[in-house]
Design goal:
The N and C termini lie far apart (114 Å). This protein is mostly helical.
Length: 235
C-alpha cells in the first residue's frame, strides 16, 4: 500500500470518529462549533476535501486541411466571424398623400371612371324590371332599397356635374368680359345660394318630387323646433 492510500484511510477513520462524536451534540452546540471553526473547515472535517476534476482540454484538429475546423459548442463564436445584415425598415405609404405617387387630378379621375355611372344606370334598369316581376315581399323591399340608393347616387353625380359646368360657364363669361374691356362682375355667395335653390326647385318640379321634398323639410324643421323648445325649457 502506498503512502497516499494510507493517508486517505487515516483521514477517513478520523472523519468517522469526528462524526460519531458530533452525533451526541445538540443542534445549538453544532451551530456554535460551525461558527467557531468556520463553514469551510467544518465542512472539510465532516465531508472531506473536494477533489477538483481536471477538465481535459480537447484540441480540435483537422484530419485534412480542406475540411472545416471542428469547434466546441461551449465556446461562443466571436462577433468578428458573425456576418451582420441590416434589415431595411418597412415604411408604409399612403398613395393619397405621397408625392411619389403623383398628384390627384379630379377631372382626369372623373373622365377615367365615367363608365361607372353607365354601369349604375344599367343596374337601375335591371332592378326596375326585377321589381315588376317579383312577388316576394322581402325581395321587393330589398330591390326598392337598392333602386333608391342608385337613384340618389346618380342624382348626386348629376348635381355635381351641373355645378361644375355652371362654374366653368361663369369663368368663361368673366374671361369674355375682360377680353371685351368690361369690368368683371363677381357674384356674392348669397346670390349663388339663391340661384342654387332655384335650380334645385326646378329640378324637383320637373321630376315630380317637389311635394315630397317640401314634406321632408317641414318634418325636419318641426323636429328642430321641438328640440329647441326642449332645450329652452331645461334652461
Amino acid at each position: 500500500m502506498s503512502d497516499e492510500e494510507e493517508s486517505l484511510l487515516t483521514e477517513d477513520k478520523d472523519r468517522e470518529q469526528i462524526r460519531e462524536e458530533l452525533k451526541h451534540m445538540s443542534f445549538a452546540d453544532l451551530q456554535k462549533l460551525k461558527e467557531k471553526l468556520g463553514t469551510k473547515v467544518y465542512n472539510e472535517a465532516i465531508f472531506g476535501k473536494k477533489i477538483k476534476k481536471k477538465i481535459e482540454k480537447i484540441d480540435f484538429k483537422r484530419g485534412n486541411k480542406n475540411r472545416p475546423r471542428e469547434m466546441s459548442s461551449k465556446k461562443p463564436v466571436p462577433t468578428s466571424c458573425v456576418e451582420l445584415t441590416q434589415v431595411k425598415k418597412v415604411v408604409s405609404r399612403d398613395p393619397r398623400f405621397d408625392s411619389l405617387c403623383g398628384t390627384f387630378n379630379e377631372k382626369a379621375f372623373k373622365n377615367s371612371y365615367a363608365f361607372i355611372n353607365k354601369l349604375k344606370e344599367n343596374d337601375l334598369q335591371t332592378l326596375q324590371k326585377e321589381l315588376k316581376q317579383t312577388t316576394d315581399l322581402k325581395a321587393i323591399k330589398k330591390i326598392k332599397y337598392l333602386i333608391q340608393r342608385l337613384e340618389n347616387q346618380l342624382r348626386e353625380e348629376k348635381r355635381k356635374k351641373e355645378k361644375e359646368e355652371k362654374k366653368q360657364q361663369e369663368k368663361k363669361e368673366l374671361l369674355d368680359s375682360i377680353k371685351q374691356g368690361e369690368k368683371p362682375v363677381f357674384k356674392k355667395k348669397s346670390e349663388k345660394k339663391v340661384l342654387d335653390l332655384v335650380s334645385q326647385y326646378e329640378e324637383l318640379k320637373n321630376t315630380g318630387k317637389l311635394k315630397k321634398h317640401i314634406q321632408r323639410l317641414r318634418k325636419k324643421n318641426k323636429h328642430k323646433d321641438r328640440t329647441k323648445l326642449g332645450v329652452d325649457r331645461i334652461k
